[in-house]
Specification:
92 residues; mainly alpha; globular
């Protein structure tokens, strides 16, 4: 999802959300957000709520109670990049 160009506005917003999560934390939180929120909730969330969530993620990016080896393994298995380097950025 992060490495592909998305045609619709909603998919672009979702991709931008995941891109922002990745740039402020790591692949584990991208996986957690994708699973917990899914595309619909990630897109339909108010902008201020998305910003607030990303702030909470950034504050907890090193929290080992949230990020463990299983989540890291799944993020790797699903080819979630470790950083935004090499990932297409979106401009609106």
């Amino acid at each position: 999802m992060l490495k592909t160009v998305q045609p619709s506005g909603k998919l672009k917003r979702y991709k931008q959300f995941l891109y922002d999560v990745l740039s402020n934390s790591g692949p584990e939180f991208v996986l957690l957000c994708a699973v917990a929120l899914g595309q619909v909730k990630g897109v339909d969330m108010k902008h201020s709520d998305r910003v607030g969530l990303i702030g909470k993620i950034k504050a907890n990016k090193d929290n080992t109670a949230i990020i463990d080896s299983t989540i890291r393994l799944l993020a790797t298995k699903y080819h979630i990049p470790n950083s935004v380097t090499g990932v297409f950025s979106l401009s609106f």
